[in-house]
Automatic annotation (TrEMBL):
The keyword Transmembrane applies. It is found in: Cell membrane; Membrane. GO terms for molecular function: G protein-coupled receptor activity; olfactory receptor activity. Its main location: membrane. Pfam families: 7tm_4. It comes from the Eukaryota. Keywords: Cell membrane, G-protein coupled receptor, Membrane, Olfaction, Receptor, Sensory transduction, Transducer, Transmembrane, Transmembrane helix. Residues 39-285 form the G-protein coupled receptors family 1 profile domain. GO terms for cellular component: plasma membrane. Signal peptide: none annotated. This is Olfactory receptor.
């Protein structure tokens, strides 16, 4: 990788320097990360295995869970490893890779949330046209466009990062690599670069939040014309989506839409949307969604039944084999 720097590695200061707190960080975020991977994998497997979850909403939820798992993997394993390391070192190339992956999957999550809101808008506001508008080919095209948009966004971020010269200080006051912490130690004036960052990442966050807000306002307004049962089901689904939007976009806007200043809470805010939100999403979408819970329950029952049948058939098979051998 091309390197505009005399620095070949960076030292991450992490969340804390206190040895006792570092052990707490290790335990807490290990639990969070394992829970994130297990929860999102369970959602992915359930959607792929269940015939009742073949609607576009669950098609998009599949990609949201996939993006969540990858997004958390960009930062959590390194944070967990560094919590037990005396020297938290990350190479220049690893740092650039982390920035690229972080923005790729973070942007993908934003686009998928917009697609999920669009799906709910069509389902609630234009139910008669829903099968024609949200057919499988359209959903596939939308997901491909989301990946392309995320990739282009990440390319823009990595170009900004690669333009930063580093001539000595290599201490990053953070637990992961991102552009704002790197701006602080770069040997150049980063005002213009920060303006480009706000224009890119900040604009994506603000515009996406605006689109989502308008969409859900229209959706909630249109629910007046639905039956009580229809309103209850639609509100349950939309409430889950709104909770995810607030939890994700609030911290992102706080980080990416401001002048190049740092605050003591920046690292904890970043933890919330890079590790906390991917952990909470499976809980939000399963605990508040009866269809997903029923699909998971049926999947578990099928698995348990097949295992019990295998255990029952195994001794019979062995006994049959023994009898045949004895008779011979």
């Amino acid at each position: 990788m091309w390197q505009n720097s005399n620095v070949t590695e960076f030292i991450l200061l992490g969340l804390t320097q206190d040895p006792l707190r570092q052990k707490m960080v290790f335990l807490i975020f290990l639990i969070f990360y394992v829970g994130t991977v297990v929860g999102n994998t369970l959602v992915i497997v359930t959607i792929k295995s269940s015939r009742t979850l073949e609607s576009p909403m669950y098609y998009f939820l599949f990609y949201l869970s996939f993006a969540d798992s990858c997004y958390s993997t960009c930062t959590a394993p390194k944070l967990i490893e560094d919590a037990l390391s005396a020297k938290k070192v990350i190479s220049y190339n690893e740092c650039m890779t982390q920035i690229f992956a972080l923005h790729l999957f973070g942007c993908m999550e934003i686009f998928v949330l917009i697609l999920m809101a669009a799906d709910r808008y069509v389902a609630i506001c234009k139910p008669l046209h829903y099968p024609r508008i949200m057919r499988s080919q359209v959903c596939l095209i939308l997901i491909v466009l989301a990946w392309i948009g995320s990739f282009m966004h990440s390319i823009a971020q990595i170009i900004l990062a690669l333009r930063l010269p580093f001539c000595g200080p290599n201490l990053i006051d953070h637990y992961c690599c991102d552009l704002q912490p790197l701006f602080k130690i770069a040997c150049t004036d980063t005002y213009l670069l920060n303006l480009l960052l706000v224009t890119n990442s900040g604009a994506i966050c603000l515009v996406s939040l605006t689109i989502l807000t308008i969409s859900y306002i229209v959706i909630l307004h249109s629910l007046r014309n639905h039956s009580a049962e229809g309103r209850k089901k639609a509100l349950s689904t939309c409430t889950s989506h709104i909770i995810v939007v607030v939890l994700f976009f609030g911290p992102c806007i706080f980080i990416y839409t401001r002048p190049p200043t740092t605050f003591p809470m920046d690292k904890m805010v970043t933890v919330f949307y890079t590790i906390g939100t991917p952990f909470l999403n499976p809980l939000i979408y399963t605990l508040r969604n009866a269809e997903v819970k029923n699909a998971m329950r049926n999947l578990w029952q099928v698995k348990t039944t097949s295992e019990n049948r295998r255990r029952v058939e195994s001794p019979i098979s062995c006994l049959y084999t023994y009898d045949m051998t004895t008779s011979l």
